[in-house]
């Protein structure tokens, strides 16, 4: 146990180790942030196409969206990452961070699309009919009636997806990227501390703290959205 | 609105859901000031018939012509502004207050300024005794209150015709009375009404014409007296024997 604490002291008193950890943590944050952003934007587009009223010119986009979510959700993330690195962006000099962001963003989009789709479909059909029967356009009905109600159902599940992405980015160490996970392995290796337990424990704390913060923010957002429901019951 | 002789003409209306043919060729006309009650056994297609009129369900075949204008994909929104609808489950918009429910369409469709719309909404709410609920959300209202608000919401656009799709089927007995008396009042003021209901005594009292639908076709129609006293077809006789 004493050894454990002395190792912690060693880690935090060696500037190179702290530097490596923060460096790795920063890469994890960057990849996660942009991947989640892409996931939400692309996921929203897919969900909108998927839930739109069927029509001639939407038939092909709808089919593409279906295939896309099926393939992405049906294959391992690690394999998708490999395909991005070693097949699609295999040419020299392409920044690996962008490859990673695209890999995770395109993956997250499929899951986010399902979350948003579920949220939209959970709004009672009568709500849409009420708007349409008054002569409102589909656009107005969606923006004013369906979307505000769907958001309440989407936020909790979306929070889950964000957390998943942050943790999943740890597999970029498999393609040699220096993220938080890789930093922990590096610091623990023979040339450095020659002990994995402490750097990995500290890396775990970093992940945990980040995810705890995200959950906290999502819970607060959920609560503030629910507050308008409580107001409704006064 | 210029043409006060509201004419709704429906020709050979058919509706199928997949292989299920719900409406099998309905021909029907509605004149201004008429109050038509649509009766029929459950599953006969009476709600679908009503919902096809304002294209809540897109007809599979046939024409719906309002004031000489055929309903199409292009003008359906304009038609809907002239054909109000009241639903079985009220369908008040949950994320909006009562006031917002009433004023949303007139403001969004640029038919009224906000101030005008709000004034009219308050008048209508006063009429049904619910001004105190103007800033409440639907979740805090009883079924009867919701349905009466849904009716005045449809009235906000001053439609030529009001369609009622089983407006009292989801209500408790006490609220049914409130809702029916509001509909009766609209009828007395000359509103053109089509209503699908199971309230036989109300149908008898308020209708100018009864239409009976079975298996997606109108099999009998007539004045309430004719219909209830001297039904012509065996199917209607059987129906009346069971419900009366």
- CATH architectural arrangement of chain B: 3-Layer(aba) Sandwich
- Count of the domains of chain B: 1
| Spatial strand sequence of the major β-sheet of chain B | 6-7-8-3-9-10
CATH topology of chain A: MetI-like fold
Strand content of chain B: 25-35%
Give a written overview of the molecule.
The complex is a heterodimer of chains A (234) and B (244). Chain A has helices at 2-13, 15-51, 59-74, 77-88, 96-121, 125-133, 138-168, 180-188, 197-233. Chain A is mainly alpha-helical and 234 residues long. Chain A has one domain (16-182): MetI-like (MetI-like fold, Orthogonal Bundle), CATH 1.10.3720. In chain A, helix 2 (15-51) crosses helix 5. Chain A starts with a helix and ends with a helix. In chain B, the strands form two sheets. Chain B has a six-stranded mixed sheet with strand order 6-7-8-3-9-10, sandwiched between helices. A four-stranded antiparallel sheet of chain B has the order 2-1-4-5, covered by helices on one side. Chain B has a single domain, classed as Rossmann fold (3-Layer(aba) Sandwich), CATH 3.40.50.300. The A-B interface holds A 124, 126-127, 129-137, 140, 144-145, 148-149, 228-229, 231-234 and B 54, 56, 77-81, 84-85, 87, 89-96, 104-105, 108-109, 136-140, 150, 153-154, 157.
Short account of what is shown:
The complex is a heterodimer of chains A (234) and B (244). Chain A has nine helices and no strands.
């Amino acid at each position: 146990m004493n050894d454990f604490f002395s190792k912690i002291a060693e880690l935090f008193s060696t500037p190179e180790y702290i530097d490596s950890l923060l460096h790795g943590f920063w890469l994890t944050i960057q990849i996660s942030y942009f991947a989640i952003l892409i996931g939400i934007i692309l996921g929203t587009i897919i969900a909108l196409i998927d839930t739109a009223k069927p029509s001639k010119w939407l038939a092909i986009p709808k089919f593409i969206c279906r295939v896309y979510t099926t393939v992405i959700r049906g294959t391992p993330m690690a394999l998708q990452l490999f395909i991005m690195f070693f097949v699609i962006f295999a040419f020299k000099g392409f920044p690996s961070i962008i490859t990673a962001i695209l890999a995770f963003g395109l993956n997250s989009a499929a899951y986010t699309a399902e979350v948003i789709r579920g949220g939209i479909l959970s709004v009672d059909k009568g709500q849409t009919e009420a708007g349409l029967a008054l002569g409102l356009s589909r656009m107005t009905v969606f923006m004013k009636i369906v979307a505000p109600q769907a958001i309440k159902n989407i936020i909790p599940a979306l929070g889950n997806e964000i957390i998943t992405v942050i943790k999943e980015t740890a597999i970029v160490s498999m393609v040699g990227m220096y993220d938080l996970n890789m930093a922990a392995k590096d610091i623990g290796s023979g040339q450095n501390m020659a002990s994995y337990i402490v750097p990995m424990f500290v890396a775990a704390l970093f992940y945990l703290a980040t995810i705890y913060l995200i959950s906290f923010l999502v819970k607060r957002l959920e609560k503030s959205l629910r507050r308008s429901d409580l107001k409704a019951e006064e | 609105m210029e043409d006060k002789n509201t004419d709704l003409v429906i020709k050979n209306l058919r509706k199928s859901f997949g292989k299920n043919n719900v409406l099998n060729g309905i021909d029907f006309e509605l004149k201004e000031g008429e109050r038509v009650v649509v009766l029929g056994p459950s599953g006969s297609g009476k709600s679908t018939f009503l919902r096809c009129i304002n294209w809540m369900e897109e007809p599979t075949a046939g024409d719906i012509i309002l004031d000489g204008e055929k309903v199409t994909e292009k003008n359906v929104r304009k038609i809907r502004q002239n054909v109000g609808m009241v639903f079985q489950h009220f369908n008040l918009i949950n994320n909006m207050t009562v006031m917002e429910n009433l004023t949303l369409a007139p403001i969004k469709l640029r038919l009224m300024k906000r101030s005008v719309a709000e004034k009219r909404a308050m008048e209508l709410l006063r009429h049904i005794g619910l001004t105190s609920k103007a800033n409440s959300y639907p979740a805090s209202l009883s079924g009867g209150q919701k349905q009466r608000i849904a009716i005045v919401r449809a009235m906000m656009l001053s439609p030529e015709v009001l369609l009622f799709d089983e407006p009292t089927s989801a209500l408790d007995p006490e609220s049914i009375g409130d809702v029916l008396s509001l509909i009766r009042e609209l009828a007395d003021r000359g509103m053109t009404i089509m209503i699908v209901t199971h309230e036989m005594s109300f149908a008898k009292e308020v209708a100018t014409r009864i239409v009976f639908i079975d298996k997606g076709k109108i099999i009998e129609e007539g004045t309430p007296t004719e219909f209830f006293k001297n039904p012509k077809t065996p199917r209607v006789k059987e129906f009346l024997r069971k419900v009366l």
